[in-house]
Design goal:
Layout (H helix, E strand, L loop, with lengths): L1 H23 L1 H16 L2 E7 L7 H16 L3 E7 L7 H10 L4 E4 L5 H10 L4 E4 L13 E6 L1 H15 L4 E6 L4 H17 L4 E6 L6 H13 L4 E5 L4 H11 L2 E6 L2 H6 L3 H4 L2 E7 L1 H14 L7 E4 L6 E3 L3 H5 L3 H16 L13 H9 L3
Parallel strand pairs: 1-2, 1-3, 3-4, 4-5, 5-11, 6-7, 6-8, 8-9, 9-10
Antiparallel strand pairs: 10-12
Helix pairs in contact: 3-12, 4-5, 6-7, 6-14, 7-15, 8-9
Length: 369
C-alpha cells in the first residue's frame, strides 16, 4: 500500500512540474511540439520565405501557393509564411532560422535573394529547398535544390500584343521596377509584342528604381500619358499600384502583371479595377503547387531547373470579365492569334537573359523619339 501511495504521489508531483514548465515555456515549445507531431504523423512541414506580402502582385500570388498546397493536401502538410523584411542584412539569418526550425521544404528565391538561400541550402543538405523563381541556373545545381522559373519574356510579349491591339493613339508605355536584365526581360518582350502587331506603334519605357515606390510609378505613368500613351503596362511589383492610380485618374488602360490584378482590386477599389484591362500572369502559385507536389511525391529532379511557359500554362493572360467586356470580337481574335503563335513556337520571343541586347534593340525600334 505504501508503495502504491508513493507511486501516486510521484505521479502527481511529475504532473505538477510538467504543468508549471509548460505554462512558463509554451511559446518556446510550440515549434518543437509541431515538429514532433509532424514526425509522428508524416506531416510535411513547408515554409515560404519572402521579404513581405501585401503588394497585391508578385509576393501575394506567390503566397497563394501555400493556400493551394493546403487545399490539395489538407492536414498532410503544415505551411508557414515567414516574412524576412526588405533589409538584406537579415536575409541569411531568416533562412538559417527556418532551417534550424526543422522544416522539410523551404520555398524561396528570385534574383534578389536566392544567393542567401542557396548559401544556407549548402549547409543543410538534408532539407529540400525550392527556388520558386531562379535567375542563375548555374547556382541552382545542388542535390537538395529544385528550381523553377517562368518565361517572363512571354509574359511581356502577350501584354505588348494586347497593348498594340487596344491602343488608339499608337503610343503605349511600359514601366519596370529595377533596371535589371530580369525586368528588361519583361519589357523587351512587351516591345516585341507591340512591334509584331503594329510596327507603327511607339513605346515609352521607364524604370521606378525599386518595387515599392508607388509615387514614382505614378509619376512615370502620368508622364507617359501626357506624351500620348493610352495603354501602359507594368512589371514593377507593388510599385505598379501607382500606375493604377494614375490610370483611374486619367482614364487610360492599364495592364497588370504576375496575378489577375483586376480581380484583386475589383471589390475594394472598383474605380481602379475598371481601368485594368487585363494582366499578364506569372503563375508562381501554380508553379509552387506543381513543384512541391513533385517534391512530396518523389519525382522532383533536384539540381535542375524548369522554365514554365505559355505552352504549359506557367504564364498566361487574365481573360476576366473586364477584359472580355472591353475588347471587341476582332480584338480578342487578334490577341489569340498572336498568343498562340508564341505558345506553339511559331513566334520566337526575344529573351534578355539569353541576349542582353534584346531590350536595347527593341527600344531603338519602338522609341517615341
Amino acid at each position: 500500500m505504501k508503495k502504491v501511495l508513493s507511486l501516486l504521489l510521484t505521479g502527481v508531483m511529475t504532473l505538477g512540474l510538467t504543468a508549471c514548465s509548460s505554462s512558463n515555456s509554451a511559446a518556446a515549445s510550440s515549434t518543437a511540439a509541431a515538429s514532433t507531431a509532424a514526425a509522428g504523423t508524416d506531416v510535411t512541414r513547408i515554409a515560404l520565405v519572402l521579404p513581405y506580402v501585401g503588394d497585391q502582385s508578385y509576393f501575394d500570388v506567390t503566397n497563394n501557393g501555400l493556400t493551394l498546397l493546403k487545399e490539395k493536401y489538407g492536414d498532410a502538410v503544415e505551411t508557414q509564411l515567414i516574412e524576412m523584411g526588405t533589409d538584406a542584412g537579415g536575409w541569411e539569418t531568416a533562412y538559417r532560422q527556418a532551417a534550424s526550425d526543422g522544416y522539410d521544404i523551404i520555398i524561396s528565391g528570385n534574383f534578389q535573394y536566392e544567393t542567401y538561400m542557396l548559401k544556407v541550402a549548402a549547409d543543410y543538405p538534408d532539407i529540400k529547398f525550392l527556388n520558386f523563381d531562379y535567375s542563375d541556373a548555374a547556382a541552382n545545381t545542388m542535390d537538395n535544390v529544385y528550381a523553377i522559373t517562368y518565361a517572363s519574356n512571354q509574359i511581356g510579349y502577350i501584354a505588348g500584343v494586347v497593348a498594340a491591339v487596344k491602343t488608339e493613339s499608337n503610343i503605349v508605355g511600359c514601366i519596370g521596377g529595377m533596371e535589371l536584365d530580369g525586368i528588361k526581360q519583361f519589357l523587351a518582350g512587351f516591345m516585341q509584342g507591340v512591334n509584331d502587331v503594329n510596327p507603327d506603334c511607339k513605346v515609352i519605357s521607364g524604370f521606378v528604381g525599386d518595387f515599392q515606390d508607388t509615387g514614382k510609378a505614378k509619376e512615370l505613368a502620368l508622364s507617359m500619358y501626357n506624351q500620348g500613351a493610352d495603354v501602359i503596362y507594368h512589371a514593377a511589383g507593388g510599385a505598379g499600384n501607382g500606375m493604377f492610380e494614375a490610370a483611374a485618374e486619367k482614364g487610360f488602360w492599364a495592364i497588370g502583371v504576375d496575378s489577375d490584378q483586376y480581380a484583386i482590386f475589383a471589390e475594394e477599389k472598383p474605380e481602379i479595377a475598371k481601368q485594368i484591362l487585363t494582366s499578364a500572369e506569372k503563375k508562381c502559385d501554380q508553379g509552387i503547387l506543381g513543384a512541391v507536389t513533385e517534391m512530396i511525391e518523389g519525382t522532383a529532379k533536384y539540381g535542375t531547373q524548369k522554365t514554365l511557359t505559355l505552352a504549359d500554362n506557367g504564364v498566361g493572360l487574365a481573360e476576366n470579365d473586364n477584359y472580355k467586356a472591353n475588347m471587341t470580337a476582332e480584338q480578342l481574335a487578334t490577341v489569340e492569334e498572336y498568343v498562340n503563335k508564341a505558345k506553339d513556337g511559331t513566334t520566337k520571343v526575344v529573351d534578355q537573359l539569353v541576349d542582353n541586347t534584346a531590350y536595347d534593340t527593341y527600344l531603338a525600334k519602338t522609341a517615341l523619339n
